[in-house]
Amino acid sequence: MGSKLTVCGALLALAGLTTAAHAQSTVLPVLDVWASRTGAGIAGASTSVITAEDIRRSPGTTIQDVLSQEVGIQTWSTSGGKNGVGTTVDMRGFGATAPANTLILVNGRRMADFDSIGFDLSSIPRDSIERIEITRGNAGAVLYGDGAVGGVINIITKTGVGKPLTGRIEAGFGSFNQKEINGNASTSHGPFSVAVAGNAVNSDGYRVNDYVRQRNGVGDLRYTGDQGSAWINMTGEDQHLGLPGARLVDQAAGINELVTDRRGATTPNAYSTKQAGGLTLGVSRIIAPGFELILDGNLRRKDQTVFSSLFGSDASDKRVLTTASFTPRAIIDGQVIGMPTKVTTGVDVYTSDIEAKRSVAINDPPFHTYNLTQQSLGVYWQQTTSVLPTTDVSWGARMQQTRLSARDRLDATAPGAAFETQATPLDRTEVNHALNLGFEHRFSPEIAVFGHVARSFRTPNVDERIGVNAFPVDFNLKTQTSQEIEGGARGRLGMLEWQSSVYAMNLENELLFIPFPPIGANINLDPTRRMGVENSATLPLSDVLRLKGGVSYTRATFREGIYAGNDVPLVSKWTGNVGLSWDIYQKYAVFDAVLRYAGERRMDNDQANFQPMIPAHTTVDLRLGGAVQNFFWSVSVQNLFNVEYFDYAVASSATFGRYNAYPLPGRTFMAKAGATF
């Protein structure tokens, strides 16, 4: 606690120095404390924003569907895509490790847990989202630290500040007996405000044992005054999910379950359950003109059980993960030598504890009990200065110390322990750093150029350290590092708005799990590279008709080692989308359509690049909706042309043409109706 007070004291001292030196400077508007730290400005970053209106009108039914329309973002699913559960968002081509390399934030706070599962976007009610901010590549690593390698996705939720009593309730019914209800309400009275949102989804799913039962809720209570605010934010999630497993294809043996039994289950009794909750407390205060101090902390807990049964062999993994954080920071607006400057600086303190128990049956005593504790202390400074009225320069640095303690208790008498060995304990302390230098120059109101160089890092998570199957555990993995350079341009040509960028990213010690023998463990890969081009544009054809589209080229390869020159699995080189929005008759009837293309990609575990490719696929989603007074409705169709496809598969490392694929649904429907008050 003493160190935290020292940090706060240092920030206050910095505030005094800044305001004294620049008492006559022009002060920029105060930032919304819920806004991302990127509100301080990261010149040179490739960014985009998805609004609540974009989400509401999307023909896709999940947040992942909405994100997949953004350039540089790919998705893949192992759970049939229902409600977005089990759908991974991949920025800039990380394939199997995408959840650990794409950092998800909610209201500027990192939600990445100390495991490989990643943050489940399906746990955020769509109606609770105000906007989604996307920062691509390494540029967000200074502000957010570990894991911001492929990019940062920041979800900003709604508040009730300044709003009268309003609410929205919606019910829906769709394919595979999917039923859902969504609702939100908000109000304010004087300086006090409250906002709540929740949803419930039940679906039998596309395949046998492919069900989902999910309940989510968020709540926000706050006080907003002239010189600051205080808030309490709460989240809760309860999820039950069937795990049908994969469909086997073995060309040599003449087996193709994608054809003979596409909707069947390899693991008809497997399932996972998850209960999670979080609480955030925070205050902000305007200490002096141009200086805002924010103090907030968060506590999250996740209880999860995964049970699988394959060929008569059972396995159970139970874990409890608790994360506590304290993240004081300051936002400073002022001038340096007459140049407008904005600074975000602060400290991030995180502590994560996990207890993972592995057993044969759910009620058996565990043969392995893993206890890992990770503590991190990060200090950062991000500054943007307008060196000219047309030119902004941004620079920043982060130093982060990470301490890890890992232990394994092996019960040799427990069922399943016969061939197990106890992992060697590990205590490690290491220091990593992130850097960013960027610029933006505006030649005119119609065109600007931008670019940056940056460094990021990612420490191994608990699943990478302990593995996911019965192979000897080695806690001792190296930290992954990345160096990136990016340049681009954005502008306006008549009604057309566009952005284009090109990037190159070199990685050392990239972390990956190899699922099958002869390796069957987590490893640090030989050096790898990501290179790509991302292009996006919007064009209003008229007041009622709008087009939006994008195309990306992503190349992920091994730079050295036995796989030098090979493609990294699960990354499509070409992806693209085209969207159309048409206000047919004011708000009474509106139409939206999205066409999405994902090129072929290597299967997971095919580092050797000798297996068949996952085929390319093109899907079309449609939505027709409208509103009359306080009532609204919509009917949507996903995968209009009933394309049979899969976007994730795990290949055999030894037998050509043998792989396990996870098929996705064909044409599906969803009808919704509701009312506002």
Number of domains: 1
* Count of separate DSSP helical elements: 7
What's the CATH C level? Answer: Mainly Beta
Can you count the beta strands? 36
Evaluate the radius of gyration: 25 Å
Major sheet description: 23 strands, antiparallel
Question: CATH homologous superfamily name?
Answer: TonB-dependent receptor, beta-barrel domain
Compile the SSE list and pairings.
Layout: H1 2-21, E1 47-51, H2 52-57, H3 63-67, E2 73-77, E3 87-91, H4 98-101, E4 102-106, E5 109-110, E6 129-136, H5 141-144, E7 151-157, E8 166-174, E9 178-189, E10 192-203, E11 212-224, E12 228-242, E13 247-250, E14 255-256, H6 257-260, E15 271-288, E16 291-310, E17 313-326, E18 329-336, E19 339-359, E20 368-388, E21 391-410, E22 426-444, E23 447-458, H7 462-466, E24 480-493, E25 496-508, E26 511-513, E27 522-524, E28 528-540, E29 545-558, E30 574-585, E31 589-598, E32 617-628, E33 631-638, E34 646-651, E35 658-663, E36 668-676
Parallel strand pairs: 4-7
Antiparallel strand pairs: 1-6, 2-3, 4-5, 6-7, 8-9, 8-36, 9-10, 10-11, 11-12, 12-15, 13-14, 13-35, 15-16, 16-17, 16-18, 17-19, 18-19, 19-20, 20-21, 21-22, 22-23, 23-24, 24-25, 25-28, 26-27, 28-29, 29-30, 30-31, 31-32, 32-33, 33-36, 34-35
